[in-house]
Amino acid sequence: MKEKSNGLRVARRAALGPYGLWALLFIVVPLIFVAYYAFTDNDFRFTTANIVRFFTATSEVDGVITHTYLLIFWRSLKLALISTLICLLMGYPIAYILSRASARTQKILITLIMIPMWMNFLIRTYAWMTILQDTGILNSFLRMLSLRPVHIIGTEGAVVIGMVYDYFPYMILPIYSVMAKMDLKLEEAARDLGCNSFGVLRRVIFPLSLPGVISGITMVLIPSISTFYISQKLGNGKFYLIGDAIEGQYVANNLHFAAAIAFILMVILLIGMALMQRYANSKAAA
Amino acid sequence: MRKIIELKNVSKAFDGQTVLDNVSLDIYDNEFLTLLGPSGCGKTTTLRIIAGFEQPDEGELFFLGEDIAALPPHKRNVNTVFQRYALFPHLNVFENIAFPLREKKVPQDEIREKVTEMLRLVALTGFEKRSVTSLSGGQQQRVAIARALISHPKVLLLDEPLAALDLKLRKDMQQELKGIQKATGITFVFVTHDQEEALSMSDTVVVMSEGRIQQIGTPIDIYNEPKNAFVADFIGESNIVNGVMLADRKVRFSGQVFDCVDEGFGKNEPVDVVVRPEDVLIVPKGQLRGIVTSVTFLGVYYEIIVDIGGFKWMIQTTQFVDVDEEIGLYIEPEAIHIMKKSEYSGMFGDYSSFSNEFDELSDAESEADE
Amino acid sequence: MKPAAKVYTALIMIFLFAPIAILLIFSFNSAKSLSVFSGFSLYWYRELFRDAETLGAVRNTLVLALSAAVLSTAMGTAAAVGIFRLRSKVLRAAYDTVTNIPMINPDIITGISLMLMFVFVGRLFGAATSLNFWTMLIAHITFCLPYVILQVLPKLQQMDASLPEAAMDLGCTPFRAFLKVEIPEIMPGIVTGLIMAFTLSLDDFVISYFTAGNGFQTLPIRIYNMTKKTVTPKMYALSTIIFFTILALLIMTNLIDTGPGVEKQEKKERSAASKRRTKLAVAIGAVLAVGMAAVLFLGAPKKPVLNVYNWGEYISDGSEDSFDVLQGFEDWYLENYGHEVEVNYTTFASNEDMYAKLSSGAVSYDVIVPSDYMIARMREEGMLLPLDFDNIPNYQYIGESFKNLYYDPDNLYSVPYTYNFTGIIYDANRVDEADTGDWDLLWNPKYAGQILQFNNSRDAFGTAQYKLGLDVNSDDPADWQAALAALKEQQPLVKSYVMDEVYNMMESGEAAVCTYYAGDYFIMADAQAPGVELSFYAPERTNYFVDAFCIPTCCQNKELAEAFINYMLEYEPAVANAEYICYGCPNRLVYEDGAYAEDMGEEAMEILYPNLDDFGEKYEQFAFRNLSPDMLSTVNTLWEELKIN
To answer: Which of B13, B55, B57 is nearest residue A6 as measured by Cβ atoms?
Structure first.
C-alpha cells in the first residue's frame, strides 16, 4: 500500500515512539537480563546449574527428604490461591451490592474502599500484628466477651488474612466496574424468563462479570504469590515463601540464583495466565 | 457550471479489501449531489477522501483544478456534517459553532456576529448557552450544520446526517437542508442509503455498489432509466425478468411478446426487462395471467404478489383482489424498460421470498452497520 | 440497599478499617509500645515533626510519586493515543502484550529485572553509582505506565471517533485537534490514571527496595530498614496524618472519577462537570509540575554532600528530646571549616543488604557502619580505604580493648562506633529463675510456644552453636549440620522468628523468652506492660560484636568523611548516640563519664560494661567472623531448610 503522509501518521508515530522505546528498554530488555543472569554463573559463563538447583535441591522436612524449592513454591501457590479465593468470595457480593446502590452511595463506598490503599502497606501489616497477636486487640476483645481466645499470629491463617487485606481492593474494583456497566434489564429479563435469584446469578450475572473476575484474580494472585513482607511479619517468620527465597538469595548476594528463581516463577505465571485467558475467551465465546 | 471537485480513477483498499475501485466523479458548483448505495458500497469512503481523512491509494483528486490528494483536512476548503454530528461535548452550542473561527483567531465581536447569524439560519436563536448534550437529535443536527457552514466552505459534505432522526423529523430536515443549500449556494455532497431521500433532495444522484459507480444522473433519469438490475432494484420496487429482444421495440418475456419503446439492441439479444409495480394494471383479460398469492393493505394502495408462470411479480393497485384469485395483467409499452445484461442480472427483482418485515429488517441492519 | 446488604457492607468496612483504627489509636499512645496503650498523648506527633530523616523520606516519596505520576501520565496518554490509532493488528497485539507484562509480572520480578539491568549497564560504563534517584524514577514510571494506558485507552474507545476528525475538518491541525477535542474527552481517564500512578508509586515498596540507590530513601524503605530496631508510634502518627490529609482532599475536591457506575447519571451534567474537572485537573497538574520542578532544581544542594550509610535507628536523631547529631555535625563543620555541608543519611537493614548494594557498584557512600565480620570481608576484597588518622585525632579516646581486633589488626580501616553482645531476655514473672543462666532456656520445653528465636541465619545458628559448644566460625559443614539439628529440635517450641517484632512481643507479654542484643533489653524494659517484668542475662559463650565507621572505596569526599568520623567521637555526639542506641560505647569520653553512667543507671552500666579488660579476649574467642563464600552459601541453604519446615 502506498502511504502518503499528511501529518496524521506522523503525529501517531510521534505519540507512540517514546513509549515504544521506553517499553523496549525498561520492560523487555530487563526481562532478558533476568534470563541472562539465570543461565550464567558468577563469571557470566553459561550454566544451567541455577535452574537445575531449583528443581533438584533437597532438604529434610519432618524427617522426609523433600525438594526444597518445589515445596516453597507449592506453599506460596497454596497460600496465594486460598487468599485469592477468599478475596473473590468476599469481594464478589460487595462488588454486586455496590454496583446496584445509588450513585451517591457507590461514590462514597468506592472512596472508602480505596482509602486504605493510600496508607503504607508495611504499616498496615504492622497494625495487623497488633490486632492478631495472642495478647492483641482481637483476643482482648474475645476475653471481654468471655470467649476463648484464638491463636492466629504465626499461622497460615494470619498470612492469609494479611494477603487478603492488602489485596482486597484489587479484587473488588475490577468486578465492580464490569458489574456497574451491566444492563439492569438483563436481570429483569432473566427473572421474566423464569430464573430464580440463584439462577440469575449463575446464568446471567456471573458469566457477564467474568472479565472482571479474571482481572481481579490476576491482580490478587500475582502479588500474593510473590510477597515477602507479610509472611515475615504475620507468619512469625515461619512461612518461607518464594518471595522470601528470592529476597534471601539477593541479600546473600547470590544474584544469579535469585534471577533463576525469578525466571522460573515468571515462566510459570505467564503460562498460568495464558491458560486462564484462553479459558476466559472460550467461556466468552460459548 | 464550474467544476469544483474532480475524482479521477480513485481506488482505495483497507487491509487488502477493495472499497473503491477506479471511481471517477465530477462535482459542480452550487449542486446538490447525493452518493447513494447500500452499506459498504464505498460512498462514505468517497466522502472521507474528499474531506481528507483518507488518502486514495491510486488516482487523483482535484479541487478547483488543483491536486489536493496530499493536503491535510484542516487545509481544505471543505467541511463535513458527521453522521452522529460529532459535536464537542465539552463545549456549549455557541462555542461549538464558533470553533473554526476561534481556530482562525477571529476577533470576538466578529465571532459573536457570525455565530448569531448562523443560529438564525438554522433556527436556533437563543440556544447559545445550552449544553449540546441537552439538545434533541434535530437540534444537534442544526448545530452541526451551522458549525460546518460558518467558515463558508466551497463544499459541504454530509455523511448520512439524517439517519439518526425519526421519520417525521427526517422529512422536515430534508426540506430544510434543501432550503439551506439554495440560500447559501454552497455545493452539498450528501451520503445516504435511503433512495427516497436521494430522489427528493438531489440535483444529481450517484448510485454506488461494491466500490464502483453504477449510474450518475438526475433523480428522474435514475428512476426511469436505470442502467442495470442493481440500480433498478435499489431505486424503488421493480419486477425484473429475463427477456429477449426480438427486434427494435419488440421484446419477449414471461412467454409473451410485448411492444416497448427501446431500440438499438441486437437481434435476439437476451436482456433484463424492468417493470415498476405501479405500472402493471389489473384488467379482465390482459397480456399475462397470474394467481394472487398475497395481498397487503398499505393505505393508499394494495401491494399484491402475483405468480406468473412461477415468477412472482409485485403489483401496486387500488383495486381489491382476493388471494388465490386469477387475474389478468396489462403493461403499457412506455412502462417496459429494457436493460442490457449485467453482472447483477438475475440477482434482483423476484419477489418469491418477499415480505415487508424482512425488507425493513435488512434496512435496519444496514443502518446499524454504518 | 437491603438490610442484609447493609450488614455485609458494614462488616467489610470494619475489616478494611480495623487496622487503620488501630494505628490511629496507637499514634496517640503515650508509651513507645505498639501493643499496650498507656494513655493519650501527642508526643509522637511532636517527635515526628522533629525527625528530619523521616520528613526527608516523606519528601522523597512525594517527589518521586509526583514525578513518576506526571511523567507516566504524559507518556502513557500519548502511548494510548498512538496504540488506539494503530491499524496493524500485529503491532497492536505486540503493544498489548508488552503493556501487560509489568501488570502480570510480580513486583519482585520487575524490581529484580530492572536492578540487574541497571547494575550491569552501570558496570559496563564504569559509573560510580548505577542506582540513584533517576533509576528509581525510571522503575516507577515503568510500572505505572500500563495502569495509565489502561485508564486512557477505554476513554478513547468510547469517544466518538469523528470528534477529532470534525476538529480537523473545522481547521485544526492534528495536534490542535488532539489538544482541543480529544484531551477534554479523555480527561476523566487521564485524571484517574494520574491518581492511580501516584497511589501505586506512593505505596510501592518492593520495586523501590531493589532499585533504590544513593542517598535517596523513600518512606517504605525507611520503614523496612527499621527492622533491626523498632517501628515506633511515630510512623503511626505519620500514617494518621496521611489518612486525614487524603480524607480532607477527597471531601474537598470530590474529584475521584468513580468509574462507569457514575457515568450513567453523569451524562446529563457531563459538559459542565467535565469542564470543571478539566480545569481542576489542569490546575492540579500545573501545581504538581511546578512543585516538582521547584523541589528538584531549587532543592538541589549546592554545598558539598556527605553520604552516610548506617543501620536503621542507629544514630541520635533529635527524637525523644535527644541531641540531633547530624544537625550538630553540620553546625560544627560550619563553625570549624567555615563552609556549609549537607549530610545525606540513608539506612540499611542488614550487613548483607549493605554489602549487596555496595558490591554491585550500584551506590556510592562516603561513610558506612558495617559490623566486624563484614569489615573483615570488605577489607579482604579491597572495598575499604585506609583512614588518615591525622584527620581523626579523637581516635585517641577509643579504649585499648577495642583496638587491634581481628577484623582490623593494624587499626588501619575502622573506628569503632558501638559494641554489644547477644543475651537472653525473659519475663521474670513467668520464667523460673532456676532455668536461667545459659542457652538451654531457649530449648526448655516448659516454655514451649513462648520462645522467640532470631529471624536471621547467623544469629540463630550462633545460639545453637554456643549451646552445643561448637565453633561459630567453623568451616566444617558437619558442625553446621549439628546446629541445624538443634534448631530443628527447637522449632516446635518457637513461637516466632523475629527481628524488630521482638520489642512488641516481649513488651506486651506475648512471649516469655527471647534472645536479642543486650542494649535492646533496656528499650524493652522501659516499655513493658503491667504484669510483665523483663530481665536479662548473657550466657558465658556468646557473640560479641563491634560496629565501626569505615570509608568505602567508592567514597567521593574522604576528608569530609574523616571529619565526620572525628566529630562522632566528640563528647556531646558520642554520649548522645550511646544513650540513644543503648549499646556499649568504646569511647572513653563516654564510658568514663559520670553523667552518662547516671543517665543509664546502675543495671545498664553493669550489663554493658562488665569488665572491659576481658573484652578483647572474649571477643577473639567467641565473636562471629567472616565465613568463606562457600560456607555462606551452605549456611543460607541450611537456613532455608530450617525455614521450610
So the answer is: B55
